[in-house]
Amino acid sequence: MRIGIDIDGVLTDIEKWILDYGSRFYYQTLNKQIINPEAYDSADIFDVDYKVDLLFWQKYFKKYTITIEPRLFASEVIQKLKEEGHEIYIVTARGNFFTEGEEILSFEENKKITLEWLNKHHIIYDDIFFSKAEKLNTCLENKIDLMIEDNPKNINKLSEQLPVICVNAGYNKECHNKNITRCYSWYDIYAKIHNMQKKD
What we know:
About 45% of the residues lie in helices and about 15% in strands. It folds into 2 domains: about 1-10 and about 70-200, Rossmann fold (3-Layer(aba) Sandwich), CATH 3.40.50; about 15-65.
């Protein structure tokens, strides 16, 4: 099976990171608190203008990409999947966000940090695709059989044409259809991939 894996929200827990760092930043700079903890975009979580939110990401995005730890057992499970003959493809929108006009990181710097982070944390893969934010075309062009994703827009769009494992988060709790399998940890992902294979 050709398995696509997102980075932010799948290999990392970006939901908790934004709540932690965002609540610190917005309390200290604007005396603002979390308004909508289940929103996907940090601007909506803290009910701020996107231009204001850009200040938060300018301060913290590079730190996030370098220092965030992977989710527990992600590397271990991916290694097992590889040993069982699956092909692993990282499909990330990191080449798309915060690089337009090089507001925070250039595409090349973003790419370099991402590749170094994957290597540092022993996350193996056959190839990596720096996709547009909407990933369906990237997945279809590269014959991805199953995508592991957290972004609700991508989950809904992808699941119209291929199976999706939805990594559980407050912001994607409304994602439900027959092609979506909700998972809560990397070993839960592993178990449910095995279940899918038994059904085939």
